[in-house]
Amino acid sequence: MKKVAFVTGANKGIGFEIVKQLGEKGWTVLLGARHQERGEAAVSELKSQGLDVRFIEIDLSDLESIAKAAETVKESYSGLTLLINNAGMPGSFSSSFTVTKEGDLRNAFEVNFFGTFRLNQHLFPLIKNNEGTIINVSTDMASLNHMQSFEFAPNAFDYNASKTANNAMTVSMALELKDSKAQVFAVTPGFTTTDLNGNAEGGKSKQEAASIIVGYAVDGKRHNGEFLNENGRFPW
What we know:
Layout: E1 4-7, H1 13-24, E2 28-33, H2 36-47, E3 53-57, H3 63-76, E4 80-85, H4 102-129, E5 133-137, H5 144-149, H6 157-176, E6 183-187, H7 206-218, E7 227-229, E8 232-233
Parallel strand pairs: 1-2, 1-4, 2-3, 4-5, 5-6, 6-7
Antiparallel strand pairs: 7-8
Helix pairs in contact: 1-7, 3-4, 4-6
């Protein structure tokens, strides 16, 4: 039986490349995206390459959409063993704490934290039962250690705080799995040139970033409760 993975935020960027790379490794991949037309176009492109990819409509800012997507997965793809929470949004990418607006902070948390939290709660029991893996895609800027020691780290409080909260969720989830064969961990691909940062120059390619995440997803090792980058363990 083919392995089944679900990747959110996957109609473009790093998510699309994750789906492609998993598909090339023989997985059946559920491509999650909030826009049906864009999601189905991405699926068609990957299917034309001979990959087994299916579309799941999911908007992480919408409670009903999350619940519906989770039910579809549980009913039609009960063998799911890999969930990659890749979907995210930059918020206003505020330049400091003092200029951050509460509305922007709430918007960033709604998708980057609460949306991911809701989907994880829906699918956590299935992944645990299937002895699978959940990867919460993170960022270097979610690391409090990194932000205190890296002189040029962007002080984007709304985005950074939402991803740091996501890291805290990863730790909490992992604690529940310490005696299980299932696992939850976080991966930061590092600075990558994507739409999320306005395609800023100097970053990794989307393919390179995806390969870091996929590499940990399929390496067969236990990473429960870890925060990883391309070189291994990364400080929280």
